[in-house]
Amino acid sequence: MKDVASTLVGQVVDLHHRRVYPGRVEWRRGRITRIVPDPAGRRGPLLLPGFVDAHIHIESSLLPPSEFARLAVVHGTVATVSDPHEIANVLGTRGVDYMVRDGRRTPLKFNFGAPSCVPATPFETAGATLSAKDVARLLKRPEIRYLSEVMNFPGALSRDPSLMAMIDAAKAAGKQVDGHAPGLRGGQAAQYAAAGITTDHECFTLEEATDKLAVGMKILIREGSAARNFDALAPLLISHPDRVMFCCDDLHPDLLIEGHLDRHIRRALRFGADRFDVLRCASVNPVEHYGLDVGLLREGDPADFVVVDAWRTFRVLRTYLRGELVASNGRSRLPRLTSTTPNQFRATPRKAEEFAVQVPEKSARTLNVIEALNGQLITRHVKDVLMIRESLLVTDPSRDLLKIAVVNRYARKAPVSVGFIRGIGLKRGAIASSVAHDSHNIVVVGVDDTSIATAVNEIVAHRGGLAGVDGRRRLVLPLPIAGLMSDLDGRTVARRYTRLDRMAKQLGSPLDAPFMTLSFMALLVIPDLKMSDLGLFSASRWGWSPVAE
Question: What superfamily does domain 45-332 belong to in CATH?
Fold first, then answer.
């Protein structure tokens, strides 16, 4: 770090005293030494604390931390609160270690948590298990900052001993416990919070968020690639600004290139929320809640701050981390680093006939169908009539009734799990992904068994990735890092992802983010119907559901 004094003049945004004044910021060896009034800054840009994503899975950007950082700093991001849950489900603590090591190679301040639910449920096959003792050991490490989202909300409500041991370990280490309890309200929300859980990013209605606020929880307003709750929760920026933070949760690379929390801030300002409250939600609130070593533009703080052109346009001009300029005028100044590619992938190719579904017993009359919803992680459980051809249950693209299948990636051969879905909207072909929350088996949706098998086999051939199939046309984005992330540069990944996204929409999908939505169709802890490698699962009943009954 250079032992040279640096100075910047502009309109200082003081979030602690809620004022803006022309001033000069001085720093040396990565720390702010003085902030003083300076009339020369009257017509200058805004100088304000950098932004902190309060909950994000770096893996969902399809990039390792060092490459994620290169894109994020352009938008004023200086830190993240990151749950390495995805790679932990594939590689266990080895995956957590990988994320921490890779993140250390960049100045962006990654704050990783100890995953609390690996595997997320006993109703799927994961690549690893983290016991309460494993989690307690992680929480003792200084670089592990919190207990990651407690998705096992039934376990929290019943005070499951293993889960409570994890929560107790976090409390003993003086670290926060993150929540994940979609739809939980009233007395159950109170019981969940009483277990020691302090936040939730899964609220999809204002009423749900209000219930959780009433029992002491803090709410993260999420706007990512698949789940978009900003509009529903924006009133909290006016009613409870001190209890709100911003997050993306999951953000694919095409959107990350366009923006990050700067997008949240622009929307919040247009909504009419107080500018100081908005900026505190993007910086002060997460820094104080998690106790992060992130500067907030005060004397003595780390020199982590951004330069923004004006309130109306709110375009990030420059980003500084520890006093070093890491992005300017829309370009990252961080170097491109190569990443290693740890993985666990044993699946072998599949045949089309393995995805055939036999007609069930004669008494069956109704098909249980997953309904995917645009912009939501939740699904609906809908009923439909059985579509039968030659003693097999078949798809009907004219009514948007498609097959969904999950293939175990951790075994050379295991039975294929097949069900039915609507909302993905394909008229032909198939799309598949090894990014399939939370165990990251192969999830595929398609119109016909041949296309489904072809898409799955493209994933198998590359030991992880995203794939689209349309007859003889095939597109693949390989993800050699745990089947979750690419080792290519971020802009190349974004371009290739965009081509796949375009292909899915050409195949008929009406979704904003077809592959992101697909990746959540195996997330059993989000209501209601989802698909695992072991069968069709109902989160509301916390048990299996037959494909037909």
Answer: Metal-dependent hydrolases (3.20.20.140)
